[in-house]
Amino acid sequence: MRVKVQAWGNSLGLRIPKAYATELGVQAGTEMEINIDAGALRAQPAPVVQLEALLAQITDDNQPGESDWGAPRGGEAW
């Protein structure tokens, strides 16, 4: 399918035909990753990062230790 590149402010934009957007599950506001691959522009929905998945990667080996900042001063409460 051919689409036309159009000016969008200081950038250029492409419209994604509805059939393609539906197939990819893309809608207005979807974050996309774009790359140049062998001279071609490749666009795909950006992966959604879940907090639970990030927290699951924390282990005893990559968790920072505690730091001693000295005795409390002022109105701190421990």
List keywords for this structure.
single chain, Pemi-like Protein 1, Chain: D, 4 strands, two-stranded antiparallel ribbon, 2 helices
Overview of the molecule:
- The chain starts with 5 loop residues before the first strand and ends in a 22-residue tail after the last helix.
- It has 2 helices and 4 strands.
- The protein has a domain at 6-56: Ribbon (Pemi-like Protein 1, Chain: D), CATH 2.10.260.10.
- By secondary structure, the chain is α+β, with helices and mostly antiparallel strands.
- 17% of the residues lie in helices and 23% in strands.
Chain-averaged pLDDT: 91
Topology order in helix (H) and strand (E) letters: EEHEEH
Judging from the principal axes of the Cα atoms, what is the shape? Answer: elongated
Low-confidence spans: pLDDT under 50, at least 5 residues?
none
* Largest sheet strand order: 1-2
Strand content bin: 15-25%
Helix fraction?
10-25%
Distance between the termini: 64 Å
Number of helices: 2
Number of beta-strand segments? 4
Largest sheet: 2 strands, antiparallel
Rg is 23 Å
- The CATH architecture of the domain at 6-56 would be Ribbon
Which CATH first-tier class of the domain at 6-56 would you pick? Answer: Mainly Beta
**Would you tell me the structural class of the helices and strands?**
alpha+beta
CATH topology of the domain at 6-56, what is it called?
A: Pemi-like Protein 1, Chain: D
